[in-house]
# Entry
Amino acid sequence: EDKVVQSPLSLVVHEGDTVTLNCSYEVTNFRSLLWYKQEKKAPTFLFMLTSSGIEKKSGRLSSILDKKELSSILNITATQTGDSAIYLCAVEIVETSGSRLTFGEGTQLTVNP
Amino acid sequence: KAGVTQTPRYLIKTRGQQVTLSCSPISGHRSVSWYQQTPGQGLQFLFEYFSETQRNKGNFPGRFSGRQFSNSRSEMNVSTLELGDSALYLCASSSLSRTLNTEAFFGQGTRLTVV
# Structure
């Protein structure tokens, strides 16, 4: 059974801290790994990673995929209260007729002022 | 460019009823996927449609069905509603092709409450 596991499940930090969120996976036909930020309803896209070792960066957020270790990390530096959200990791799995995303449970990040 | 639009945003139904949810993907996107999100189970894949064909289906009972129209808009139907069907239903669209990785964009979701 395909599985995506995120850790920690919840995290409380102070503004200015740096956080690292983890995602590991065991899936049959890996195509890509995606990170999303969910604040209220719609998960908003952050990164898509397909190649191992390449860092994707956007402002204070960055992410790397390690296909050998079957894992990815999402780093957020100099956290702000606006970073408070659920961070979802999803793996795109290719099947014979299509593809689907399998999500982890998410990491609930709370950034306190 | 307009995002993914889901209607209605909120819905309250009673057990045994049926419900239809709608999703309009981003213009030009041909793949539409549906997900159910509950506090205990997280986001779970329901099905994916591409060019009016269901390409993939998750592990949900037959009460959950869907379809896609020629303009790529998709509907999801749940019949004989159960209390456990209460959830946030999210739709995602992408311009997915077999050879090109593209990210999926989500709509705001429909919050379904079954009483």
About this structure: Residues 37 and 87 of chain A are 5 Å apart (CA to CA). Chain A has a mean pLDDT of 92.
